[in-house]
Amino acid sequence: MKTKKHDTQWMVSVALMAAIVILLANTPLGMIQLPIIKATTVHIPVIIGAILLGPSAGAILGFVFGVCSLVSNTMAPTLLSFAFSPFMSTTGIPGAIKAIWISVGCRMLIGIVAGWLWILFNKLKVNQIIALPIVGFVGSMVNTITVMGSIYLLFAQQYAQAKDVAISAVWGLVMGTVTASGIPEAIAAAVLVLAIGKVLIQVLKRMNFSFIDAQTAK
């Protein structure tokens, strides 16, 4: 009976976090439109969900995030939507598969890495005030680095054409995006994950959510 209660609490919590991801992904706060790419804050509930509910929940929430990104880039395409939506592929089925990896696979990695990093900190008994912002920062950088790195590795030629530059300039542009967009996003994630995560951990503990004690550092 206790295990069933645990499973029900966990599934309901994942569903609630997924609803937050979907809500953010469909508002200007979640997907901020820039000239070339959509900057995002949707990774923040993915990271928090991974901390509270574990890597498997983080992977599910990352999957939801990725699907929302795929849909967004299909319905409101930008110059780089070919790298995020299989329906915008300019290189047929191979390009479609690559786009699914970037939009969905890379986002699942956010939750997986954040969840396991939090478990590591928990085992090492790292204070929450230190662990939470680190996990937030790393989780956000996983998003930026895997997405932009995959674009460079898989779509360098198409990226160069979209930006109307030589292919030799792609690396510099990718690193520029990581620096100008990825690092500020990661800093914001560190602050928000600390502020929101610490409160949610205490609230869920007081509500006797049994899985919290197993996932959170003391």
UniProtKB/TrEMBL annotation:
The UniProt keyword set, sorted, is: Membrane, Transmembrane, Transmembrane helix
The record's section on InterPro entries has: ECF_trnsprt_substrate-spec, Vacuolating_cytotoxin
> Which molecular function terms from Gene Ontology are attached?
transmembrane transporter activity
Domain of life of the source: Bacteria
Record GO cellular component, one term: extracellular region
Q: Where are the transmembrane segments?
A: 12-36, 42-68, 75-93, 99-119, 131-155, 167-197
What's the protein called, per UniProt?
A: ECF transporter S component
Q: Which organism is it from?
A: Dorea formicigenerans
